[in-house]
Design goal:
Elements (H helix, E strand, L loop, with lengths): L1 H42 L5 H49 L19 H47 L6 H32 L8 E4 H10 L2 H6 L3 E6 L4 E4 L1 H17 L6 E9 L2 E8 L6 H4 L21 H11 L3 E7 L3 E9 L7
Parallel strand pairs: 2-4
Antiparallel strand pairs: 1-3, 4-5, 5-7, 6-7
Helix pairs in contact: 1-2, 2-3, 3-4, 4-9, 5-7, 7-9
Length: 362
């Protein structure tokens, strides 16, 4: 293999030498002919055949020497300005192909800073950084999914084993069956949310935009939680502007409101308050959901829209950490904006901004 590569390099060097030789021969011959013609016109002296033969021999030797020098200079230039940066780039690319995304191409020193190699190296470094982030997210996602799947499966397995006991009372049997059903519900919800999030992130769900009454949709979503807030004796405060129209995907946005209401009610202690506001602000409509729950620390707030991230582990058994990731992805797809403000121990406010419809619903 090495002998073959060496032969190829020698053949390439010979080809470059021949190219320089032909170029030098053409240029020098043209210059010599022009020079002799000029001398002949100016002095009237015609060169003899002997002079021409001697000049041709010297010129030929000069062509051979200059071609050799140009070939050597070009080879040195190639090794310094081309081969070295290319080898560094290729070596880094091979490491990336093997799955090592920690590799980075060091700054390339070159006589010509505009040769493009530095730009290629910078792009590859950025790509490696992005791939490393994606790989980390993939690993975390797999680890989190595995953990979230193990919990309900362990509950189902344990209570399923207990249900096989012949001396259970009817009350115990119902209690264990209820625990199995609840774990199965959590498992089904987790899988459903994973599938939804996967479709959203892979753009397999395309928004079907229609103009509809956002105020009416939000009221319907909130009323679906009536039994839950009544059970916790929550005070529900609303300030909803009527006939606020938006042109968006109604089904996707229902995921947003259901998740925000579910979280607000879940994290608010019994006897607390949940506030809902829907107000037009120029060309935008602002929907805010405020609770008087535990609040979100600043560090947690930075990651709250990430998959499987749960800031309050005391409520982890009630969710799977995918709700707000779904919300953020839906808001991005429909072209809106979502933000959160919170104070630890005093509650949180989620603000969603959407563009209003330019015409009335049909």
């Amino acid at each position: 293999m090495k002998d073959k590569q060496k032969t190829v390099r020698w053949l390439l060097a010979l080809r470059r030498y021949l190219m320089f030789f032909l170029l030098m021969a053409f240029v020098i011959s043209c210059c010599m002919i022009l020079f002799l013609n000029m001398v002949s016109r100016q002095t009237g002296i015609e060169p003899t055949q002997t002079h021409i033969e001697q000049a041709a021999k010297v010129t030929f030797l000069n062509v051979l020497l200059l071609s050799f020098l140009c070939t050597v200079i070009d080879e040195v230039r190639r090794r310094i300005m081309v081969n070295r940066p290319v080898q560094k780039i290729v070596a880094a690319a091979e490491q990336m192909m093997k799955g090592d995304f920690s590799v980075r191409i060091p700054p390339l020193r070159s006589l010509d800073h505009d040769d493009g190699f530095s730009m290629i190296a910078e792009c590859l470094n950025q790509m490696a950084e992005e791939l490393a982030g994606i790989e980390t997210l993939r690993s975390d996602f797999i680890a989190n999914v595995s953990h979230e799947l193990k919990t309900p499966l362990a509950v189902i397995q344990n209570y399923g084993t207990l249900l096989q006991s012949p001396d259970l009372t009817e009350g115990e049997r119902l209690e264990y069956a209820k625990a199995v059903t609840e774990a199965a519900r959590r498992l089904a919800s987790l899988i459903t949310n994973i599938l939804k999030l996967n479709k959203l992130e892979n753009q397999q769900i395309y928004p079907k935009t229609v103009t509809y009454n956002l105020s009416e949709q939000i009221c319907e979503c909130l009323l679906a939680f009536e039994n839950v807030w009544e059970e916790k004796q929550l005070d529900i405060e609303t300030e909803i502007e009527e006939e606020v129209l938006v042109t968006s995907d109604e089904e996707l946005l229902s995921l947003v409101w259901n998740n925000l209401f579910s979280n607000a009610i879940k994290f608010t202690e019994p006897g607390g308050k949940v506030s809902l506001s829907v107000q037009s602000q120029g060309e935008m409509v602002e929907v805010s959901v405020t609770d008087t729950g535990c609040g979100i620390p600043a560090e947690v707030g930075k990651h709250i829209f990430e998959k499987f991230y749960q800031g309050d582990t005391s409520h982890a058994q009630q969710g799977n950490g995918l709700g707000l990731a779904l919300v953020k992805r839906v808001i991005d797809i429909v072209g809106g904006d979502i933000s959160v403000s919170s104070e630890l121990g005093k509650g949180s406010t989620f603000m969603v901004r959407l563009r209003r419809a330019q015409h009335a619903a049909p």
